[in-house]
Write a structure and sequence with these properties.
This protein is mostly beta strands. It has no helices and 11 strands. The protein has one domain: Lipocalin.
Length: 136
């Protein structure tokens, strides 16, 4: 006689929708085909990312840091966007969701093909308060 499967009373979210400061994003850690998906939108563009275009690092003191590259040039650097995904717990019921507050970080990575222009701070950060929902 085998034991019945145990249903966990709590689960982690699998869908995030966040916005603030002119930025809107939807993040799905495991989407179609088992790949992460992230849609980023600001006043200038809407960009879609999936799989290895999305970099995720678990930082024990922060939660997950999820990053994508918004622009990349060979001679002047790049711009990335990172969002802090806080540890969040939901009830294990269909449609469970909760409101979350977090931060988005737009980073301009300076680079010049002229070595003397690379002196000084290489990254400039802009923080954006984001709020929205984490759901299952």
């Amino acid at each position: 006689m085998s034991a019945a499967p145990v249903v966990q009373p709590f689960v982690a979210p699998n869908h995030y929708h966040l916005s603030g400061g002119g930025i809107s994003l939807t993040y799905v850690p495991v989407g179609a085909g088992g790949l992460a998906q992230l849609q980023y939108q600001d006043a200038q563009r809407t960009l879609n990312f999936q799989g290895d275009q999305i970099r995720t690092v678990d930082v024990p003191d922060l939660g997950d840091v999820v990053s994508v590259t918004l622009t990349l040039t060979i001679d002047s650097g790049s711009t990335t966007f990172s969002v802090l995904i806080p540890m969040t717990t939901l009830s294990n019921v269909p449609g469970a969701s909760t409101h979350i507050h977090t931060e988005g970080i737009t980073t301009v990575h300076r680079f010049s093909v002229v070595p003397v222009l690379n002196l000084g701070q290489d990254e400039v950060y802009t923080f954006t308060r984001l709020h929205g929902t984490a759901s299952r």
